[in-house]
Amino acid sequence: MTADATPATTTVLIVEDDVDIALTLQRMLERQGYQVTWADTGQKGLAEIRRSPHVVLLDLGLPDMDGLDVCKQAREEGYDGGIMILTARSDELDRVVGLDYGADDYLAKPFPIAEMQARVRALARRAVRTLGPGEAASGEQAASAPSAASSTAGAPADEHALRVDVAARRTWVGRQELTLTTKEFDVLALLDAERGAVVTRERLMAEVWDENWFGSTKTLDVTMGRLRGKLEEAGATAEVVTVRGVGFRLEREPGA
């Protein structure tokens, strides 16, 4: 694991009602040095997620609520760490819905321990860069609108202009701040850095999901669909365009 995501500085939350599975995962992760917390219901899981762990391992079959609803509510409340769904369900619709609700990864039970460890490492690296090492940062973000100085250089002073602040990991359309998941922000930041140019699917997968991604590239399309929806809902003049067979392009805004 890279220096910016050592296990000792990484917090993992397990939301799982099966005691045997939870304890097995907890012991395995603690042996690797992670700081592990366990919740056995969805409501307890949400309470712990508000403390912003770096990675959440989320079971779907919880006793009090569906894990998909836990994932959706966590994202709506601004949680920006990594979420990996663990489930005995193998239906493709569940996988798609889980990703659409904001999950970063999906692993069907039973799963190889080595694969689980690799996926946790991949999520942890990105989450530590977002939330910071050690004690995880608060998931709450200031609601204030950006000043002119914090806007993207050269961005038009327009109520529908898109501005991406990579250092603060914040995005606005005009004076409205968008709530984006970790992956949505990373995809948008990469497209914004190359605004007007095509960014290939391969580059997006390599830089946003990195070399430890084991899943289908369909997750990129799901993430892109959510991102487009949020930009359209906010009335952004910038638009993500698909370049068939190649990748995606963030169109330059009028007057940019």
What spatial form do the alpha-carbon principal axes imply?
A: elongated
Provide a count of the helices.
8
Describe the sheet with the most strands: 5 strands, parallel
Radius of gyration: 18 Å
Question: Termini, distance in Å?
Answer: 41 Å
Number of strands: 11
**Approximately how much beta-strand content do the residues carry?**
15-25%
Helix and strand sequence:
EHEHEHEHEHEEEHEHHEE
Question: What is the gist of this entry?
Answer:
By secondary structure, the chain is an alpha/beta fold.
Keywords:
256 residues; alpha/beta; five-stranded parallel beta sheet; three-stranded antiparallel beta sheet; 8 helices; 11 strands; 18% strand
Question: Explain this structure to me?
Answer:
It is a single chain. With 256 residues, the chain is of the alpha/beta class. Helices cover 38% and strands 18% of the residues. The chain has 8 helices and 11 strands. The protein has helices spanning 19-31, 42-49, 67-76, 92-100, 113-131, 182-193, 201-209, 218-233; strands spanning 11-15, 35-39, 55-59, 82-87, 105-108, 162-165, 170-173, 176-177, 198-200, 240-243, 247-250. The strands form 3 sheets. It has a 5-stranded parallel beta sheet, sandwiched between helices. Strands 6-7-8 form a 3-stranded antiparallel beta sheet, covered by helices on one side. Residues 135-157 have low confidence and may be disordered.
